[in-house]
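Figure S4 source data
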Amino acid sequence: MNSRLFGVGAALCVLALVGAAPAPAAPAPPRGLPLGAAGLAETRTTRTLHPGVTLTRIVRGADAPAMAWTVELAIPGGAGSPDPDAPPAALKDEASADALLAALRAKGFDARSERVTTPATADYAGGTLGWRVRVGAFPGESAATAERTRLRAAGYTGSAWYTGWDGDAGDRGPWRLDVLTIDPRAFRGALRATYGPDLENRETTSALAAADRATAGVNAGFFVLDPRAGAPGDPAGVGVYGGRLLSEAVGGRPGLVVHDSGRGTGVTRLTWSGSVGTGRTALPLDGVDRVPGLIRNCGGTADDLPTARPLHDTTCTDPDELVAFTEEFGKETPKGDGAEAVLDRRGTVVAVRTPRGGALPAGGRSVQATGGYAARLTALARVGRPLRIRSGLEDGRGRPVVPSRTTSVLNGGPELVRDGRPHVTVATDGMVQPGNPSFYYGWAHKRNPRTFAGTDAAGRTVLVTADGRGTGSLGLSIPESAAVAAALGLRDAMNLDGGGSTTMVVDGQVINDPSDATGERPVGDALLVLPTRN
C-alpha cells in the first residue's frame, strides 16, 4: 500500500471485488470497472481527507501476468499512400505496410503486419485506422530495445512498445486509478483552479498545490508546451480563474465549470467573442492572453490556417490578429512586429507602442495588433482617450456565460459522458485528423495516462487520474476512459490533459506515478481542493 496515499491513523476501507472479503463498513459495489477480461481482481481503498472529500485508490488486475514487448516501426509512405512523400508514421495503408514488411523479412527480421481497428464513438464511425508493422515479441523492455538498436543499424526507425498499451479488450491489466470525490453537502472548503504566478510559465501540480496550501489537486487543461506554439504554460483553450476570463475558448469545445462551493459543477460547450473599440467603431478580437498569430489547438476565426475548427495538438496561424492582454499574462506582453495600445486600470490609453511588447501598468490591459490590424489599431487608439475591450463566453445555445468571482472554467476534451452514458466527441473536438490516422491511433486509441473530471447524479464533483505508460498500470484509451467514467456513476464528464501531465497531489505529495522520465511535468494550470474558502 502506498504510504504517501494512506497516512497513519487514516480511516480506511478496502473494497475487494474479487478474491478477498469486503470490509464490513463498505460493501463491494455490484461490479468492477469495465476494463479487461471479466472476473479480474479489483480492490478499492478509500479514506476521508476532510468533510465532504474522499480519496479512493482502485487497482484492477494486480495479479496479471506480464505481457510481451515488441518494436513498432515507422512506416514510410508508399505507392498506395495518398501522399508518397509523407513522413514515416506508425500507421499507413496496407500496401505501404506490406512493402516495409517484405523489406524487413528480406533482412532477416521477424516482422509482422497488423490491421488496426478502433471502436465507434458518438461522432466518429471508427473502423480500420490503418496497418502497423511490428518486429518480434520479447519478455522484457531491454530485449525489445536491443532489437530496436539492430533495426536502426539497418536503417529503420521505431520504438520499443509494451503490448499491454495497445488497448485490447481482453487484457488482464493491471490498472491503477485515483478518484477524488467532493460532496457539496458536507464540503466546506473551496474547489478552485489556479495557473500560478502568471499564465505564461509552467509549474508542477504539486508546486501549485503547495502555493495555495491545498489538501488535494489534479492537473487540469491543455496548455502550450513548445515555444514555437506560443508562450509555454498558456492555456490552449478556455481559462476562467476567479471569475476572470484569461484565455479564449477553442471554438465549441467543452469546458469544465466549477464553483468554490463544489456545487453546480458541469460540462459546457463554449464559444468566445471579443472586440476593441471606441464608441461607434469596433474591431473584432482574435484572442486573450496569447502570442498573436499562434492558435494552439486551433478553433479560432475563419481566416486561421489550416482551419477554424478545433484540431488537437496543432498550432494554427494567422498573420493578422488583435489579441487582448491582462497583467495576469506575465511580467511583459509578447514582443514582436506590430502595434500595442496600453490602457490603465480605468481603460484609458496611456501609450501606443511600436513594435509591440513590454510591461503593463498596475491593473492595466493592452491590445496587440499584427499584420494589417497594426495600422487600424494605431488609428483607433488615442492617448488620453478611453478604449473599450469586450470579451465574453457563450454556451452551446448562444446564451451569455457570465462567471462570478467564485467560478473557474478549465479547457479539455473530448466529452466522455453525457446524461450518464458514454458520449465521446473525438471528431467534434479535433482528435480525428483527416489524412493522419497515426495521431488518433497514438492519442485516443492507445492507452495513455489520463485525467478526467465530471459530476454524478448526487451533484458530487469527481476527479480521476489513471496511471499509464508503465507495466504497473496500463493506462486508458479514450473510449475506456468514457466507460470508466460512466461506471463510476458520472452523469457528465470530460477529458482533461493527460499523458505526462497526469498528476494527483494529496497532502503535499504526488500519489500517482507521472509517466515522464524526468518526473512530474510542469503544467499550465491545476484544479485544487482547498481546506477553506478564504
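Figure S5 source data
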Amino acid sequence: MDRPWWQGAILYHVYVRSFFDSDGDGHGDLPGVEARLDYIRNLGVDGIWLSPIHPSPNRDWGYDVADFDGVQADYGTAEDFQHLLDAAHAKGLKVVLDEVLSHTSDVHPWFVESLTGGAEGPKADWYVWADPQDDGTAPNNWLSVFGGPAWAYQPARRQHYHHKFLRQQPKLNWRSDGAREAALSVLDHWLAKGVDGFRLDVAGTFLHDAALTDNPAVPPGERRGYNWSHAGNLQRHLFDSNLPENVETLEVIRRRVEAHDGLNGGDRFVFGEFSEEEERCGAYLSPADGLHSAYTFVLLLARKLTHRFLQDHYATLSAHPAHWPTISFSNHDVPRTVSRFGGENPPPELAKLLFALLVSLRGTTLIYQGEELGLPQAKLAREQLRDPVGDLYWPYDGGRDGCRTPMPWAPGPALGFTTGAPWLPAAAEHADLTVEAQEADPESNLAFARAMIAFRRASPAMTVGGLEFLEVAEPVLAFVRREGEEAIACIFNFSAEPRFVEAPELDGAILLEVRAGDAELRGGSIGLSAHAAVFLRLPN
C-alpha cells in the first residue's frame, strides 16, 4: 500500500531502565534490549520506542538530559546502541528515540555556560532568564508541573531561570537562534546514525510568551478533580507554553526530520506528546503541517470504561480529518491500564478486552512494555520510590514508579529482570504474569496479544481504515473499521455481566475466531460474555 510505514504501525514502548538488565547492576540497558529483540519481534509489532538513552543525572530519570549526543553510562556505550540499532533493523524492527528538546539538565554544558558566561555571553539567551520582582519573588505566576513556582533564582546572574518541570530541568529558549539550531542538530546527529524517528517529549512547550504574561486561573466553577490534583492545574497554561506559534516550530522540526528521508533507508517518523491546550499548540495538525502524528493524555488519564471516553476523543479527532493520531492507553507516566479501569483487583478478563480495544482503534498504536501481559499497577512503599512526583505528593499520589517496575520475565526474586538488586523492586503483583508462564499458556494475555496484533496486521481495515461508531446501548461499545471493500465490526462488552445487543448492521456478518470471551451471533443480534471483545466481518 502506498503509505508511510508509520501509518497504522504498532510501536512497542521500551522503558529501558526496567526492561532487561544484561550485566547484573540492577538497571536495564541497551544490550538487555537487544537480548530481548526476538520477544519484541514475535509480538508482531513494527518497531520500538526507547525511553531517553542519553547521559543524565536522573533527577527525572532520563528526562533531564546532560549530553544529547551520548549514551547513559549504565545503559551501555555508543557502540552498544549502534549494535542494537543494526540488530533491530536486521529483524525488521524500526527504532524510535525519545528526545527531550524543550529543556535540559542543569548540568548540561549549555546551561552551565548560560549561567556562568554572564548576560552577554555566547549562550546567555539559550535559556529563559528574567529579573526577579522588586521583592525578590518570581518574575510572574507561572507554576511548575512538579509543584511550586516555575522559576529558580541564580545569584550568578541575579536572575531567575524558567523550568516547567523540576528546578533541575531549565527550559531551553527556542526563541534563541543558537539554541534552536543546537536542538535541531540533535535530530540530525541521530538520524545520521540510522534511527527511524523520534517521540518528542512535551511537544507543546517549545515556545514561551516573550512578554512573560501571567497565566490565567481556571475559573473556580470549572475546576474538577484533575485541576486540584496539582497546583499547576489550577491555571491555564497559555503563556508559559502551548502558544499558537508552536505550530510553526513543529513544522520546522518535521521538515528537519524529513530531510533525512531516503538516507540510510526509509521514511522517518516524528510524533509528539501533548498534555495541555492540545488544539491551540498543534496536537491535531496534518502530517503536512505539523508533526507526522501526536498523542494526548485524554485516553491516558481516562478511568471510567464508558462510551464517552472514546467517543468524545474521536469526536475531537473528526474535527481534524487530515490529522493522523497516535493512540496510547498506557506509558511510563500513568498508572497501568487494567488498574486504572479495573481498580485494585481488576477482573482477569479485563486485560484482554482493553488490549483488544487499544489495537482496534484507528491510528499508530503505542504498546507499553508489559501491557501485552496484562500487568496491573505495582504497589510500593514510600521508601521504595524513586520518582520525584511520588515523593512530592505522598501519600495522596504515589507517583509514577508503580508503572515502571521491572519487566517480569521468569520466576525468581527479581522476576528474571536482573541477577543483581533491581533499581525498583520487582512487583509481587506480577509474579504470576511472567513472560515464561504466559509463553506456556495458549489462553494467556500474551497469546491473545499476539493473535490480536496478527489480526490487525492482516487486515487493511483494522490497520488504516476509517472508524464509525454504531448505535448500541451502554455498556457495550461497537464500531466498524472500514477500508475499501473490507469492513470489520468491533464489539466490546464493558460490563462484568453478560450482555445482549441488537445492531442491524450485523445481519449477515461472520463472527471471526479472534476474540476475548464468548459470543453468540443471531442475525442482527449478538450475546456477549462479561468483558468480551469480538470481531465480525460485515457483508459487502
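The radius of gyration is 23 Å. Residues 382 and 395 are 8 Å apart (CA to CA).
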